User: Which sequence fits this backbone?
């Protein structure tokens, strides 16, 4: 990819070992500095990325550098090499000893693509608005796929779920289904599988271009780092440490996903909600009124569903919106309402078919956990358009049915 600026290496040593990998790649002008001058170097050099060697560095020093990097716009990736301390949420880990020698360059390129996407979004906004990673917390919108059957599975689910949504899979087959049905921001592959099964799964991820930059953290040392996955890490450690390593990678992927939705919203001239991928309320109301009018004139079927979520779990509502946006048919449309519910219009669909569609959507949502073992399945109400219905009467019947279910 085209170079966006120099790479700044921050190290207590004069020339850390990983610098040779960058030199061999001959893709990046490299500038080196020590930790005392790191802040000033960021301002003067205007780097496209920062790679920090953490030998002998404490958490407070790293946190200061991470805050400086996260406040930059466009996105300034910070890659922390061989972290032995707790990582700030925006520092991308990289373990030299457990990685293929070329993976540092691959990971750097993946981070620079996020930076390029960020610059594009800022440039295309009218008026242009700088958006720093420190201004938002995309990990709150993220979904991690946790695969495993070992004793650490419950602890990993809680450690990850305290800060992101977690989808659990006890088999590779279930994991593949989740990857097909929903947006996943990172994978944690735990215990309970043979090395042959894990090899087959990682090979499939490697061969699918959609997943080559997806964060994948393997919690067992039985796997070798030979796979062509930019954000693969092998971390045999306790659940809290695994979550500490995984979440910065997930945050970067979720940030990239947020930027992609923002770009689609810009292309749609503001008709799409950048957070969910569904329509904005004003666009939904306009399309809904048009659909009801056209059916009244030409005939046909139409059904409407309302998905209501637990108000104490806002991430469940957001996760549900993203699932609906991904899985609903191109002819259907929906929007998040002011009360937090999601209303979806199924065009050319009778009541029976609409119930079948909503059952499938609810089944996918049921497998997401947020910090606990319990799942959050929405309450769903479905009504069909009657001959004398208007938009107002149709929504009124939908609301009445919701009240009866709640009571």
Assistant:
């Amino acid at each position: 990819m085209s170079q966006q600026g120099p790479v700044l290496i921050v190290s207590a040593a004069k020339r850390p070992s990983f610098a040779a990998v960058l030199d061999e790649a001959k893709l990046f002008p490299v500038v080196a500095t020590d930790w005392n001058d790191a802040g000033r170097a960021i301002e003067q050099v205007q780097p496209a990325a920062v790679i920090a060697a953490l030998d002998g560095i404490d958490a407070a020093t790293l946190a200061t550098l991470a805050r400086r990097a996260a406040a930059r716009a466009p996105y300034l990736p910070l890659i922390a090499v061989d972290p032995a301390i707790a990582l700030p949420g925006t520092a991308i880990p990289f373990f030299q000893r457990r990685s293929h020698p070329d993976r540092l360059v691959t990971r750097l390129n993946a981070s620079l693509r996020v930076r390029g996407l960020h610059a594009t979004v800022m440039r295309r906004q009218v008026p242009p608005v700088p958006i720093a990673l420190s201004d938002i917390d995309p990990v709150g919108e993220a979904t991690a796929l946790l695969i495993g059957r070992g004793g650490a599975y419950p602890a990993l689910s809680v450690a990850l779920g305290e800060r992101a949504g977690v989808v659990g899979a006890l088999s590779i087959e279930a994991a593949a289904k989740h990857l097909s049905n929903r947006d996943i921001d990172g994978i944690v592959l735990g215990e309970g599988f043979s090395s042959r099964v894990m090899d087959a799964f990682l090979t499939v991820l490697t061969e699918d271009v959609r997943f080559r930059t997806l964060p994948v953290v393997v919690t067992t040392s039985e796997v070798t780092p030979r796979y062509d996955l930019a954000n693969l890490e092998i971390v045999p450690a306790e659940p809290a440490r695994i979550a500490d390593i995984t979440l910065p990678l997930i945050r970067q992927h979720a940030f990239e996903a947020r930027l992609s939705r923002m770009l689609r919203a810009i292309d749609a001239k503001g008709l799409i909600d950048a957070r969910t991928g569904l329509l904005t309320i004003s666009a939904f109301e306009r399309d809904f009124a048009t659909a009801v009018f056209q059916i009244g004139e030409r005939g046909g079927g139409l059904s409407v569903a309302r998905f209501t979520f637990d108000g104490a779990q806002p991430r469940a509502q957001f996760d549900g919106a993203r699932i609906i946006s991904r899985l609903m048919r191109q002819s259907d449309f929906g929007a998040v309402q002011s009360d937090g519910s999601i209303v979806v219009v199924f065009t050319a669909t009778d009541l029976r078919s609409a119930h079948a569609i909503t059952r499938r959507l609810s089944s996918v949502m049921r497998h997401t956990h947020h910090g606990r073992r319990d799942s959050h399945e929405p309450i769903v109400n479905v009504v069909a358009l009657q001959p004398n219905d208007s938009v107002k009467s149709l929504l009124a019947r939908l609301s009445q049915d919701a009240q009866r279910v709640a009571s």
In short: The radius of gyration is 23 Å.
